[in-house]
Amino acid sequence: MSLRHASVLAAVMALLLAVPRTQAITIISPPTFATNAAAPLAGNLALTTDVPSLVSVSVNDGTETWQRDFYDYGTSHSEIVLGFKASRTNSITVIVRDQFRNTFTNSNAITYITKPLPVNMATIVLVTNIPSQMEPGYTMFRVANDTVTNGYVTIVDQSGQVVWYGQSGADGGKIGPIPTPTDIKQLPNGNLFFPLTSENGFEEVNMLGQTISNWTAPSGYLVDSHEDLLTDHGTILYISYAKEFVQNFPSSATNPNAPTETADVSYDRVVEISATNSALLNSWSLISMLEPTRINYLCFLLPFYGIDPEHANAVIEDASDGSLIVSMRNQDSIVKFSRSGQLKWILGPTNNWGAQWQPYLLTPTGTPFAWNYAQHAPVFTPQGTLLFFDDGNCRAEPFAPPVTDQNNYSRAAEFSVDEINMTVSQVWEYTGTNTDRLYAGLLGNATELPQTGNVLVTFGAVSYENGQLVSAHSTNATMVRLKEVTHDANPTVVFDLEMFDSANTSSKYAGYEVYRSYRIPDLYGHPAAPVRDLTLQYQPGAALVQFTADPARNYAVQSSPDLVNWTDLGVANPDDADGDFTFEDDSNQGATVQYYRVVTQ
Q: Is the pTM of this model over 0.90?
């Protein structure tokens, strides 16, 4: 299946005479509302009308009233309704509207009672929120409960209230199976996309938790759940690990005098498959590009991977030249290479690299500057810089003295790379060290938000806060902190969400983890769609074009005398916030026949 979406769609109607506005709409089958246990705070609304129509719902949950408009014009409707909160009695009123903007309201409201949140769901505490300075939208993440080894894909609003969730097990269950760590992405159509290591592939589900599509990775190219990048050219990029014997490999990361050995090590490949048919398109072996015996302090620590000198955890594309950029946690490095497999640069501490790799090491310039260690999730900002989460493990390379976790910190960091001069400079960072020093030695990401320019930072597994264990009772507990901060020299925290049960006094309490988090603009997708309820009214000297469509997009109006030659007239203006648009054309006075179309942008 292809996930590419048309960006421009159009509807056409001929202008021949004035269109009468008559009352001619009613609901001919009572609305029904069906839920799915996989997504308890969502439901499917179904109804039919006697003439083509659009549907809106108004929901009163006893605390607040909200409305949602849908723009799939027709007589048979099936709408996924989102935004409910737990433990509330919801009264759902259905309104339908025809192309002439005549409305009909269903007289019998639907009652939907939502259940309480599950007892094993994360304890969410809103530490800070300043809505006037926050990026609009919702925050989406998968939170793992490490005490009982389960997790939930969760979406919260600006006040930290859960508005959607779907269950996922440690390696099974719906939504899922989603193992830890894993990324969850929202597609343009509003569905969710994620990797499935137990099934060696990827899955798309809708917001009812129903599987829409799935992809199986090629044999021999196992899916590592760290990355699931859908490209804009119809492919999926992911990371796959394999085993290889390496000679003269260090047997210790702490003893410089330990003997070398022939070791069976895990190494990583970046794999690209078709999003249409899952066919293997490309595979790049990282161990063949980099020094195979170079290690950091982490490469012997995870039994699942065995000896793990690379541990790639993210891959992105550089649109400027088509190259790939990979984060390698156990090299303390971010590397860039071409699609032909040619290494371009290495961003990270320059210690312990052999002579063959010296030309590729970036030289730091400017102050302040601090190298990245065990980093996650680099992304490009609109300014062309690299933004990532710097976990900071050890903040040293073997065999220099490591920084202890208690004295360490994690941060969001932004670097600028000069490929011509092979230099790197630090543009920005958020450490919180002056007020709230957090150390999260695994997981995490940082993303710049499009409207405000703020940065959403995921401290995915905090073990120390201001030098103190997050739990006074359990040495293994981790806390999650999701912080939105301003993107300036002295960042201000405008949103801070904590996931931790501070009242739990068990020595076995493990806390929570989040791999990555995202601010999504809406619970719904906004794909380009054709305008289907276009009406035209002709008055002497002018034509009035009216339609209803998704206000998240812009709509250009064009005219033609022959359906062949089209003239751009301008962009339709919204009449209101509900998706009503109007455009008045007075440029074709005296035309006997004129055609109009609306182009979705």
A: yes
